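Q: My collaborator sent me two sequences in one message, no labels, and asked for predicted structures for both. Can we handle them in order? The first one she listed is below.
A: Yes, handling them in the order given. First sequence, followed by its C-alpha cells:
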Amino acid sequence: MGLSADGSYKLPPMDAVGSGSVQEKQAAYLVEIIEKVNGLFEGELTDDDQLVYVNGVLKGKLLENQTLVQQAASNSKEQFANSPDPSNALMHAIMNALEAHQVMSAQALGSSQVRAGLKDILLGRRNSMRPCGRRRRRRSVSCEVWQNGASEADHSNDNARHSRALSL
C-alpha cells in the first residue's frame, strides 16, 4: 500500500478528470445538435436559443406523446423515421409549444407576481444563473435551468429511457 514512515498514505493526483465521462458525451451530442440546427432558422438566434427550442421544448413536447414514444421504442430508428406519425407529432409539438410559450410569456409580462416567482426560481437556492462547470466550446452545457434542480444529464437519461429513436 505504500505507507510512509509516519503511517500516512499519499494519494496520487487525479490526472484524467472527466475523460470519457457522461458529461463529455452529452456535450458532444449537444454540439452535434447545434451543428444540425444552424442554418435552419433565420434571425438573431443564439446557439442556446436553438438548442433549448429543439432539444428541450420540441423534444419534451414529443415525449409527452405516449403513442409516439411507444412506437419509437418498438421500432428501429429507420422504421420509426419512415412513419408519418413523427412528422404529424412534430407539427403538433410546434403548435403546442408556441401556444404554451405565448400564454406563459403573456402572463409573465402582465404580472409582477409571476415575474417575482420566476426570479425567485432562477436565483433561488441553487443560483442556477451562476456559471457552473467548465466552459466547453461556445457554451456550458451543464448550466441549463431544469425543473426541480435536476441536471440536463438527468433529463437526458430520462428521455433516453423513454425513447431511443427521438434523437436527431
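Q: And the one she listed second?
A: Here it is, processed independently of the first:
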Amino acid sequence: MKKWMTLLAAAALALLAGCGGPTPAETAESYLGAVKKADLEKARDLSTGENTSIEQKADDLTTEEREMFAGIFEELEYDVTKEKITGDTATVEADITNVDMAKVFGGVVQELIGDAFADAFAGDTPSDAEMEQKMMTLLEKELAKKDLDRVTMKTTLQLKKVDGEWKVDTSDEVMNAVSGGFSDVANELSKMDLN
C-alpha cells in the first residue's frame, strides 16, 4: 500500500510540474501588458522572435522613438476572449482597443502638407531629418490631445511552445491591432511617392 501511495504522489507531482507554466492566454495577456507599458524587452522575451516586429528591434530604437511608442501604446486595452490549444501551438482571440492611428495620422499629414506648402512658397526645402523631426513633434502633439477616437480590432494571436514555454508569434495583424492601425497607416505611407 505504501508503494502505491508513493507512486501516486510521484505521478501527481509530475502532473503538477507539467502544468506549472503560464497558459497561452496568460502568455498573451503578459505580452499585451508588456506592449502597453512599452516594455519591448519583455515583449521580445514573450515572443518567438521569428518576425521582425518592433520588439525585435528594441535595442536599435532611439529614446525619441521609444517615447513615441510609449505614447501610442499607453492607451492600449485588451480583453482575451478565447483560447484553443492544439499540441504545441495555440490561438488566443482578443479584442484589442487603442487610439485610432489612422485619424491621428490624418491630423499629422494635414499639418505637414500645410507646412510643406508654406515652406515651398518661402523657398525653403527642409531636409529629411527636419521633416522627420517635424512629423514626430506633430505626432506627439496629436497623441497628447484628449478624447481621441479609438478603434477595437478582433485579433487572433498565434502562439507556439518554444523550449517548453508558450511564446507569441507577433504577426502583422497583432502589431496593427496593438498600434491602433499604425501598421496600416505606415504601409499606405510607404506606397506613396512623396518626391
